[in-house]
Design goal:
The complex is a heterodimer of chains A (about 200) and B (about 525). Chain A is mainly α. Helix content of chain A is about 55%, strand content about 0%. The longest helix of chain A is centred in the middle third of the chain and has 20 residues. Chain A is elongated, with a radius of gyration of 20 Å. Chain A starts with a helix and ends in a 27-residue tail after the last helix. In chain B, a hairpin with a 4-residue loop joins β9 and β10. The longest helix of chain B is centred in the C-terminal third of the chain and has 23 residues. The chains are: A mainly alpha (about 200), B alpha/beta (about 525). At the A-B interface, α2, β1, α6 and α7 of A face β4, α5, α8 and α9 of B. Bound molecules: flavin-adenine dinucleotide and iron/sulfur cluster (SF4).
């Protein structure tokens, strides 16, 4: 086991202890257990190459994810769920992501003569940065606002990642263990020792 | 879709059970009317349904897709639109300041926007009775505007509130614990019963599982049921049937589980919020002889300023709506009309991470490193005036949603006034956070609330409803929600929506009595 794996193991056992305790309300326990234990959903929306590319991009934007973020995006799109709004200048989420992914392949081809997934990490990041800055044109990018696409994708992946209870523990958040409420809420108030490792 | 069937008639149908619908539902039932509320969303049981988890709570938000356009497109969903019995109050922060008298006279004072067709004195008694009924916690006396007390002591301050206190004190800006409709002690109200005190869970924006927060589902809805009202949840209203001879609505058509039903009624109170209300009217080509339905869309200027502190903040603890300052209600050095208030913000992790992605564009290790400091971040935001402009409006697009209805498209761009106000506020909040010891200070520009798409006024030429909330065109249609606001107000809207709701019910009942005698 690497140090990193060992750390995840420790966090995981801390989390499981917390989830079993009476500090977590039953509906909260259900929600977090499901997220922790449920297998990643099967691909249902994207094509296989699109999905593979989304996984590669996702790993650049959110390294060290605790679950397959691309699979969760795919599942959402397959169910036709959304966040309740969309920029008028963007196509519906599914079509937007598909277009953007195609645009990334186009860029990899035109700049490096290679598939995106075959680029070095540095090359990938440079390409992604130019999309984020809207400094791309031609092909797909003449129709799709690059910066907006990038922000939508980044925001969705970020929300998925920080919804994961392991990620939450890593950033020191134990707010879900609130069945007893909080007594000490001011600045620099002592941490509840039961919630610490 | 199956054939529509019809039900026995009722005195009034209330569409939507949020801040606009629930109070009048209770008042009409109390007066002995047979009333039915139709609510598109679910009836929740907070104790058993509400998880302390942002993603699990996504069901509280209105997720039928809306198109957002303009140069400052406003976000919907989690940003401003709820659904369920209780409407957006299910996830509101429960800041409940009163409007100040001059808020209602923007045009008289500055020559821009419009005045309200009613005065502070019309609202004041409703504010007072609402604060008692909801159990608002706050300072007594409240330091800004006409003096008044609150029935419950102010709630304890969390880290973000204390930091804002620290920064403002250094700059000579007065602050105070906010008026917040969460209970600082257990509280009894007739017709509702006992509600327990807030346990500082800090999860108000994703649903309060203890009932301490005065969302409509634990206050006016139980009161309405107590007085015999009926609430049908999961019922989506699509159409109105009218009598062409009298221009009156004769029935409300809704769908439930794909089944179409018709509810015949004497009166309709449309309280579906400032997006769905004008959308329904436009879909039905109703109540729009003024051409103002969907016009004058406003959203509060709501820029947030975040910073990182050496202190341990734990920003998810305590009510997120903790500290307020109204010193900026009419800033002496303003180069804009109106003003704003300052509020501290607590924040849950996914909301914060999402804003960092959207606002800072951080990814990879930069994002990870930033979020590792989650327990050390705190924010302040403003709620500021927003003027109505001809270019800011709601229309029906030609894209259809899953129900087969046109999606609404909302155009929104800041004007000079909003830009100047925002610049003033951002500079001040950066100073406050600097004085409080923050590093890595950053601003997240945004707009909050949906306001003004069925404006209230004296004149049928440029308003949709009269000062009583009654449609100029359809004699038995009343509108009451955030859409009737003629101006945005420099305070959070919910308490004023509820005050208008009770007032609309009273005016309706008085008129009915007059017509009878
Ligand atoms: C995160 C957040 C924090 C907030 N914090 C505060 C705060 O601190 N203080 C404050 O004053 N305000 C706050 N607000 C705003 C406040 O919640 C709203 O202004 C207020 O609830 C609006 O009331 P309304 O009656 O206009 O609409 P809503 O409360 O949204 O109610 C409308 C209801 O109508 C229903 N409906 C819509 N269409 C149909 C249809 N066709 N058929 C049947 N039913 C339908 C909806 O499901 C909904 O339940 C906040 C909002 C959010 C999102
Ligand atoms: S902080 Fe208080 S009011 Fe808010 S959700 Fe928690 S218990 Fe409810």
């Amino acid at each position: 086991m690497t140090d990193e794996q060992r750390e995840v193991q420790t966090t995981l056992s801390q989390l499981q202890r917390l989830l079993e305790s009476d500090r977590v309300t039953p509906p909260t326990r259900d929600a977090l257990r499901t997220r922790l234990l449920e297998p990643d959903p099967h691909r249902a929306f994207f094509t296989e190459p699109e999905f593979a590319l989304l996984e590669v991009v996702s790993a650049r934007l959110i390294p060290q994810a605790h679950s397959n973020l691309a699979a969760q995006v795919d599942a959402r799109l397959a169910k036709g769920e959304g966040k309740g709004w969309r920029f008028d200048t963007l196509p519906p989420d599914g079509a937007m992501y598909q277009l953007g992914l195609r645009g990334l392949e186009e860029l990899a081809q035109s700049r490096h003569g290679s598939r995106f997934a075959a680029l070095s990490a540095l090359e990938m990041d440079k390409l992604l940065l130019s999309v984020q800055r809207g400094e791309v044109s031609g092909g797909v990018w003449d129709a799709l606002p690059a910066a907006r696409f990038f922000t939508e994708l980044l925001t969705e992946l970020t929300e998925l990642h920080y919804s994961h209870p392991l990620t939450q523990l890593e950033i020191g958040y134990t707010g879900f263990a609130d069945a007893h409420g909080w007594q000490q809420i001011g600045l620099n108030s002592p941490r509840d020792s039961e919630l610490e490792r | 879709m199956s054939q529509s069937s019809s039900l026995p008639p009722v005195d009034a149908v209330v569409i939507g059970t949020g801040a606009g619908g629930a109070p009048l539902l209770a008042r009409l039932a109390q007066a002995g009317l047979k009333v039915v509320a139709l609510e598109a969303g679910r009836q929740w049981n907070p104790a058993t349904d509400f998880a302390t988890d942002e993603r699990a709570q996504a069901g509280l938000f209105w997720t039928d897709e809306r198109l957002t356009a303009g140069s400052n497109p406003t976000a919907f969903g989690r940003n401003n639109s709820g659904t369920g019995v209780g409407g957006s109050t299910l996830h509101f922060t429960a800041y409940t300041p009163r409007a100040q008298p001059d808020d209602l006279r923007l045009h008289s004072e500055f020559g821009v926007g419009v005045d309200w067709p009613l005065t502070f004195d019309d609202l004041e008694p409703y504010y007072a009775s609402l604060e008692r009924f909801l159990g608002v916690s706050g300072p007594s006396p409240y330091p800004w505007g006409p003096a008044h007390d609150y029935p419950l002591e102010a709630l304890p301050l969390n880290g973000a509130a204390q930091l804002m206190q620290r920064g403002c004190a250094a700059l000579g800006i007065q602050t105070s614990p906010a008026a917040n409709a969460a209970l600082s002690g257990s509280y009894y109200t007739a017709g509702v019963g006992w509600r327990a005190a807030c346990t500082n869970r800090g999860f108000c924006q994703a649903g309060c599982s203890t009932g301490a927060k005065a969302s409509m589902d634990v206050t006016f809805i139980p009161l309405a049921l107590h007085h015999g009202a009926e609430v049908r949840s999961g019922y989506f209203v699509t159409r109105f049937e009218t009598d062409p001879a009298t221009n009156r609505i004769t029935g409300v058509v809704y769908t439930q589980d794909g089944l179409e039903q018709r509810q015949p009624c004497e009166h309709v109170f449309l309280c579906a919020g400032a997006i769905e209300t004008p959308r329904l009217l436009l879909l039905n080509e109703l109540a729009n002889s003024s051409g103002q339905v969907g016009r004058n869309f406003m959203a509060h200027t709501g820029i947030q300023v975040w910073g990182r502190f050496a202190d341990d903040v734990q920003p998810h603890k305590g009510i997120p709506g903790g500290l307020i300052s109204e010193d900026t209600h009419r800033p002496h050095d303003a180069d804009f009309a109106g003003g704003y208030l300052l509020q501290s913000i607590g924040v849950m992790p996914v909301t914060y991470a999402s804003q960092v992605a959207r606002g800072r564009g951080l990814w990879g290790t930069a994002l990870r490193d930033h979020l590792l400091e989650y327990n050390h971040v705190a924010g302040i935001n403003i709620l500021g005036e927003c003027l109505p402009y001809a270019g800011n409006y709601l229309e029906l697009s030609d894209e259809l949603d899953a129900r087969g209805l046109p999606k609404p498209r909302v155009h929104f761009s800041f004007g000079d006034n909003e830009r100047r106000l925002t610049a003033h506020a951002e500079a001040l909040m950066r100073q406050i956070w600097g004085a409080a010891g923050a590093t890595d200070i950053w601003a997240y520009p945004r707009s909050a609330h949906t306001i003004g798409t069925c404006r209230m006024g004296f004149d049928r030429e440029d308003a949709v409803v009269n000062p009583d909330g009654r449609s100029f065109d359809v004699p038995n249609l009343y509108i009451c929600d955030n859409s009737v606001f003629p101006s945005a107000l420099s305070v959070n809207p919910a308490l004023t929506i509820m005050a208008l709701s009770l007032r609309t019910a009273d005016r309706f009942l008085e008129r009915a009595k007059r017509l009878e005698s």
